[in-house]
Amino acid sequence: MRPIICIAFAFAVSFSHAVIAASSDLIQSERAVREECSAFSQAGMRACVKIKAGESRVALRLAEDDLLRAISKWDEDSKYVRLAKIKLAMSNERFAAYREAECGFSGSLSGGGAGDTHEIRRLACVAELNSQRANQLSRSVADMVTN
């Protein structure tokens, strides 16, 4: 049974590395998100950026769930599994606080911009940071499998 598990892990590692390499190419900067949505009116641009922020939230949630599942199945002493889950929850909370502060700051860089400019910048920031965090968590899953 152990050789089958090792083969499954090896496959998962190679697949994870391919997904991570592909996903890191897909992370758009805040500016790139805004530029991609710039073909629309200001209201349309806000809607476009809001959709991208929503998609990044889904990707982040999936990455968090994948990592939590990997930790739960980790072949390690239960105290380390429990500790890793606690640390992940703390990390997620602190990331959310950081994202809120950072993206609030980013929105403020619109200065006296009219209309939706503050919200467009804030949402584009959310999309970028969520995508970066999702990628980071996915790398953690791959690291668990290889170690």
What report would you give on this structure?
With about 150 residues, the chain is mainly alpha-helical. It has a single domain (about 1-145), classed as Up-down Bundle (Substrate Binding Domain Of Dnak, Chain:A, Domain 2). The chain contains 5 helices and no strands. The chain has helices at about 1-25, 30-35, 40-70, 80-110, 115-145. Helix 3 packs parallel to helix 5. The model is unreliable at about 1-25 (pLDDT under 50).
Helix/strand layout:
Elements: H1 2-26, H2 30-36, H3 42-72, H4 78-108, H5 117-146
Helix pairs in contact: 1-5, 2-5, 3-5, 4-5
* Strand element count: 0
| Outline | elongated
Distance between the termini: 19 Å
Q: Under CATH, the topology is which?
A: Substrate Binding Domain Of Dnak, Chain:A, Domain 2
CATH class membership: Mainly Alpha
The residue-averaged pLDDT reads 85
Major sheet size, sense and barrel closure: none
Number of helices: 5
- CATH architecture call: Up-down Bundle
Tell me what portion of residues adopts beta-strand conformation.
Answer: under 5%
Proportion of helical residues = over 70%
Structure classification: mainly alpha
Total number of distinct structural domains: 1
Low-confidence stretches: 1-23
Gyration radius over CA: 18 Å
N-to-C SSE series?
HHHHH
